[in-house]
Amino acid sequence: MRREPGLLALATVLITAPAFAAGYDTPILYSARHMGMGGTGVSWVSDPTALFMNPAGIGATEMASLTLNVDAIIATISAVPELDTPSTAGPAVLTPFLFGASIRVCPMCTVGFGFYPVASASGGYEYTSKSSGVTVKDETTIRFYEIPVAFAFNYKDYVRFGIEWRVTLAALNRLKKNGDVSFFELDTSGVDFKGFRLGLQVQPVSFLSFGVTYRHRVDVDAKADDGKALTIPVTEVVFPLILPSRLAFGTRLDVPVKSVTLGLSIDAEYAWQSQNDKVGIETKELPPVEVYYYWTDAWTFRWGAEVGFLENWAARVGYVWDQKTSNPQYSSAFGTPPADTTTVTLGGGYKAKNWELNLAYAYRNGSVEITPEDVAGREKTCLTCSSPGNHEITLHGIYLDFSWYFDLPSSVSSWSPKAE
Question: What is the model's pTM?
Fold first, then answer.
C-alpha cells in the first residue's frame, strides 16, 4: 500500500515529541541520607551513593562498602494536553532505586560499581476530547539507567580524585488511543558506552570539605524495529535522546555546639540543558523529522543542615531551588512546566559501628500559566506541545537507604566527613 509522506510525517511527530520538557534529570534523587539535606553531598559523600553524586567519594572506603537505596516518588501533573481540554496526569508512583558497592584495592585506590536510574519519569492522561468527544488515553514513559565503574585515588588524607565510566541505557515508550482506535504505539530503547564522570574532594581540616564533579553529555539512539502511527506501520525508528552535561560544586562545614554537632552543606549545579535544542527522528519510510526542545541552561541550588546527637542519631532538613529549563513556546504536557520549582526536605538516620539506616521525605512544586502569546510563532509540526492554560507539577518523595561498611574503625561514630 502506498503511504502518504505527509501522513507519515504527522504520525512520526506525534510519536516522538519530547515527553519531559524541563529536562530529564529530577533534582530529588538519591539517597535518603543526602535527600534529607536537600540532596547535598558533592563535597562529603562517602558511601557508594558517590557513584551517582561524585565518584571521588568512594575514596573514603575503609575496606569495602555496600549501599541500597529505594524510593517512592508520587507525581501529579496538571496541563492542557489538547486545546481547551485541561487534564491531570496521576498521581503516578515512580520507584527509583540505587545499588552501589566499593572496594579498596590498594592504600591509594578504590574501585566502585553500581546500577540505578539516573533520570526517570512517566505520565499519562485520560480525558474526553472537546473537539471529537471521544475518550483519549495518552501516556509517555522515559527511563535513563546507568551502570558505572569508578576509580578513586587518595592523596594523603585530605584529597580524593575520582573518574567514572558510565554505560547508559535509555528507553522511551509512547501510547495514544482515541476511543477504541490505537492512534500510535512505540517502544524504543538504546545504549551508550561513552559516558564519563569526574570528581574531586578536598578536606583541608577535619570540619571543612570542598568538592567538584562533572558529568559529560550522553547521546543514546533509542530504536524500535516497528511501531504504529495512525494505525499505519512505521519501521526502523531512531529517536535520539540526550542527557546533558552537568557541573556541580559543594562545601560542608561541621561545628560542635554543646552536646551536638551541626553540619551545614551547600551545593550548586549547572546543567547545559541547551544541548537539547532539536533532534531529527528517523524512519525507513520518510526523511528525518525535527522535534523541538529549545531548552535553556539552568542552575540548581541546594542547602542542607544536619544535627548529630546522642552519638549515633542525626536529624536533617534541606531546600532545593531548580531554575526553569523548558521553553514555554514548546512546553510539554508530560513533565515539569516551564517554571522554577522549589523543594523542601526532611530526614533522619541512625549509624552503628559498621552500618547505617536513613529515611527522608521531599516535597517539590512548580506552576505557571502559559498564555496564547507564549506560544505565538510555534512550529506547526509541534503537535504534542501543550496548549495555553495552567501547568503545574507536584512531587512527593519518600527515601530509604541502608549501608554496610566492612572493617570500619570502632572509634567512628561521628557524622562528620573526616570520621568517615
Answer: 0.87
